[in-house]
Amino acid sequence: MKTKLFLFIICLAGVCTVAAINPHRVQRIDRETQKHVFIPKGQWMFGGTVSYSEHDESNLNFTVLKNIEGLGYDFKVSPYVGYFFANNMAAGVRFAYNRTYLDLENFDLNLGEDFNINLEDVYYLEHKYEASGFFRSYLPVGRSKIFGLFNEVRLTYGYAQGKNSTGSGVTYDGTFQTTHNLEIGFAPGVTAFITDFAAAEVSMGIMGFDFKWIDQKTNQIETGKRRTSSGNFKINLFSINIGMTFYL
């Protein structure tokens, strides 16, 4: 009985092995994900994202941070346009402008009697311009014509000018900075149609490669350079974008 059972197991394993290595017996599952048209070929898409935040501190104290006096804001706008050259697939361009401002009158860092840092009259202003080309593919959620998923691949070039100064009156130091950066990024997201021609979108950058070149000049005399490169393979909550897209 044991011998027959052993021979049966050997034969069953052999049949499974032959079926596994025989390409004519292997069947692929057709999930029909690309057969459902979520956005048809020939349509145009355009939209954008806008974000704005500001802060104003007056005699703020928080743990080791003391006597904070300052104000600032951050503003960013990013319009884009694309064309669907195939069903559920689009290519387009995106532009972005980002302005960052900070005026810090006073800042004290108190870590004990022997370690205190004080900053006064710190001023920072930066303008950043970006242009990117993107490819986006859509996938409907089941057979839904309202909810869908998408993934966007971006190639971005950015140019920024910034000014960082400290002091006031006769004691005044300033550093001017120019930045060039090249970025390859991936941004998956979710879209939901509100009307037949408008949809709300939420996307998040989760992976990318960034190369940056920075040139500085302090007091119009001293110069400095810096080059950085990085790869991002994690979810960044600060990269979440919420916007509207219109389809024609």
Helix content percent band: under 10%
Mean pLDDT: 78
Share in β-strands: over 45%
Strand order of the largest sheet: 1-2-3-4-5-6-7-10
As for the number of domains, it is 1
The best one-word shape is: elongated
CATH topology: Porin
Span of the ends, CA to CA: 74 Å
- Give the count of helical stretches: 1
Verbal overview:
By secondary structure, the protein is mainly beta. The chain has a single domain (36-247), classed as Porin (Beta Barrel). The chain has one helix spanning 2-21, and strands at residues 44-62, 65-86, 89-110, 116-140, 147-168, 171-193, 198-204, 207-218, 222-232, 240-247. It is elongated. Mean pLDDT is 78; it is low at 4-10 and 17-21.
Write the layout of secondary structure elements.
Elements: H1 2-21, E1 44-62, E2 65-86, E3 89-110, E4 116-140, E5 147-168, E6 171-193, E7 198-204, E8 207-218, E9 222-232, E10 240-247
Antiparallel strand pairs: 1-2, 1-10, 2-3, 3-4, 4-5, 5-6, 6-7, 6-8, 7-10, 8-9
Write a concise synopsis of the structure shown:
About 10% of the residues lie in helices and about 70% in strands.
List keywords for this structure.
single chain; 10 strands; 69% strand; 8% helix; 248 residues; mainly beta; Porin
